[in-house]
Amino acid sequence: MIALTVVTLGASAQLLYRISGRGLASPSYILGTYHLAPVSFVDSIPGLRQAMDECMQTYGELLTSQMANADSVALLQQAMMLPDGMTIDKVLSVDEMARLNAYMQKLLGMDLNNPLLAQQMGRMSPVALSTNLSLLAFVKKNGVPSGFDEYFQKESLAHGKGVGGLESMSDQINSLFKSMTLERQKELLMCQVDNADLYDEMTDAIIRAFFAQDIDAIKEAMDITLNNRCDSTPEEEDVMINNRNANWVEKMPNLMMLRPTLFAVGAAHLPGEKGVLNLLRQAGYTVEGVVE
Fold this sequence. Notes:
It is built from 14 helices and six strands. It has about 290 residues and is an alpha/beta fold. The chain has a six-stranded mixed sheet with strand order 4-3-5-2-1-6, sandwiched between helices. The two termini are about 35 Å apart. The protein has helices spanning about 50-55, 65, 70-80, 90, 95-110, 115-120, 125-140, 150-160, 170-175, 180-195, 195-210, 215-225, 235-260, 275-280; strands at about 15-20, 30-35, 55-60, 160-165, 260-265, 285-290.
């Protein structure tokens, strides 16, 4: 999905929401995050420090402390690779490889004709290559991210509180790297390569919307389409966003009943009819934006 227009940021900006009702003795909270935001932004979110103090455990999409262990790293690396004996130049046509190399040359100052880069990235699947190139593009423009999502679980542990993840590493790997055919992965990689400036616009629009603390503007940026094969299909939206939202909302009631919980998940999961906020309301909870 590509942002073709400048996002208009809403006047009532909100990233943090209080969850109450349905028998909860104390409220819980849900925070929409941007995984690449700086930790310093925490103090710009109204009510967040108080919410962190009130909550007795913190849950993210994943249990972040497990992401760096050897088993998880090996699982992720395996999921990101093409089958044995395959390299990206065997997946793409000669013309597609030329376009990919031109894109990488502009982004990195080198391409897959460089033996070292080919060794590092040449065996990645198209979706893994796309993910890594997006991250490198962000770092080139904005610097190395400082672990925004991890911060909340680290703070919880530092204060003797619990932490957890709403899904496992395997769950997330299946959604991100194993849910598409190789042909569809290739198609979306070339969409990124051929529409690099527009993809940059989308990323910039999402970043602006996040720092304006406007989840509706984030959704607006993500929902703008090119009306061609570069757009996500409804089935892909379900795998990446909607099904995961529904699975999380099934788990959240027991966690909130056990103790007040701060949920810190990607802001794109909060808004919309199938977003976490609406699903919680449909489940009978009162969900209100936190203001100071």
